[in-house]
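Quick log. Single chain, no ligands specified.
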Amino acid sequence: MGKGGAVLTVGRPLPWQEAKDKLTYVRQHGVDQFIQHYRRHATKQRDTLLYGDEIEYGLFKLSSDGASLSLRGDEVRSLLSNREAEERRAIPESGKVTWHPEYGSWMVESTPEKPYSGYTDDLRRVESSMRSRRARLLMALKENEVAPTVVAFPLLGASNEDLPRNGPVASSVLVPDDVINPHPRFGALTKNIRERRGSNVEVVAPLFQDDNTTGNTIRADAMAFGMGCCCLQVTFQCRDVDESRHVYDQLAVLAPIMMALTAATPILAGKLQDHDCRWDIVSQSVDDRTSDERRTTMSSSSKGDKRLAGSGTRKLRTSRYAAAASYVCRRCDLHSCAARYNDVDVEVDESALQKLQREGIDDLLATHVAHLFVRDPLVIFDGLCEEVDDKTATDHFENLQSTNWNSVRWKPPPADSQIGWRVELRTMEVQLTDFENAAFTVFCVLVLRVLLSFDLNIYVPMSKVHENMDRAHARGAASQQKFWWRSHMVVPGEPCTGDKEESVVEMTLLEILTGKGGYYPGLVPLVLVYLDSIGCDPDTASRVQAYVDLIVKRASGELQTAAAWQRDFVRQHPDYKKDSVVTPTIARDLLQRCHAIGVGDVHEPSLLGENVVAPVRKENAYNVQLSRVHFQTSSSLCTLLDQYAERALLVKKRKAVVEDVARLRNELDEKEKELKELNDALEPSNGVQRSPSLNRLHSEEGENLAVTLERMRGISESLEPAAGDGV
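-> predicted structure:
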């Protein structure tokens, strides 16, 4: 699962008032489960790199009137999953995709069935897998449906007028409850966030200012506006727990950079926003903090509710959807770095922290885990509370872990699984094409290999990471904004001496990628050096070069981000009134164009440069078995053979016509050459005028030859094969 959670439990979620009496139990036993689980897996090792991606899709219906949500996500997911199972039964080595439910009833999520390996060939398999998934999804769509990889439905909250508002779950005046996935977990999440908070969520975004724009903000009131956003996430399996903690820290720094480069969210609730990214929208849409927890003052006079975490009065700096809070690496040469750069006050559950420390969990990891438990579990299923065995299960820990939606997620191995320690990068926005999604996935993989192989780190103070997250939202941040970054990437141990601020400077994304001055080499040159050092095969190296060229051109402004391109599309549409409003017809045309770009029907140079996306077709979605063909009657076979025999004759005739065209073109070239020679011979080169008789001869011969050439051109054109004949 991407945003909705790791596991979809089947059962009855407890209403919030019932769940309150069990919150303390789940929090306390969640800590116990983590301790038990950590001890069981602390020595678990995996020697090979594995990684995978998650891509989320929205399903939309297009009509002459505009566009609307297609609330068939569950139906489509079931159809696709069944088709995967059928193919796997028929061809065991086949089956390429796992389909997952997502928050919105118009959404589906895909992952490769098996993770990618640490070999260079698999860097190319990423794009192939993504294209295969898109083709299979196309197969499940109806004629009037499209599924472009856009972050958000442009008209959410501004369409679906035929569906009732103010439902019992979301209580939204903008969107109906029907847009929520029918699985009980999603409805319970929505309702319990609202009930714990004491009001509807409040999503506020800056409104893009155009000539006729009125107002300064866009407002929304439901979880669907955030959790209905699609994204691209990448998960890495690490060698062991220590490497996973090191990777977590490095990805925490990289997260805002990758968000800015993949910016793709210029529209919210039918209006152009003045931000480029979704993160703040999602953060506000799941903010379950009480008014006391959201306060700006340090103290509160409220007694709160003792059943809630911190009685519901502890001041919490952020929503539960936020940037990583602290570094966790404990490597002996980096531990001081991680601790030194943790310059943000992290709220923790004190009882959880003390228990973790007593049980031997080091301070950095204990702080990370105790920070999870300043939140309450949002969904508790009936019969899955006291009944869960803390010694073998992790349900209560995962309840908190899976609903702390941070920019990076540190993931212990699942119970009873061969899977190792993993880290998930969660900030990237989904792109319009599989080429782009693969480019950013592969780039993240290679940057991590560089950092691990060359033993480098990119630590900056955590406060600067949070500032970078804020800056990444700005319109045009990919090419115009500056971000805090390390001025040098040296071996661990050295950068932690001296003042930590001295090694951190502001850089553009182009400088972060390509280098600055003589002291910072840049991520892209390091990636290319790494590939060369391992002897990467030419095909993979060529593809990676195309990927990094795309990313660098995004940072330089030579190519647009999806956010900039979509905003320009809206503003250039003939129906746009320069009022920041995205009308139904604009939304329809935008979704249609995004779909066409994604499947390769339209090339958009401002987004992709010279990288042309090969067409993605539903006819190529699944393997076709070389099975025996049986005809019901011999006459049907004869009919088919006659058709192909007739086609063979036409192909033969076409070949003869092509040969005639080539012969006539040669003759035409010879005649044009002869005409040129005659003209040259008849034109005086010394300025002496010709006699009248010579002028007449020149005119007559030229006219006769011109008539002959024109006649030959007519014959040639009449024999020219029609375009599209495959010649």
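The CA atoms of residues 241 and 570 lie 47 Å apart.
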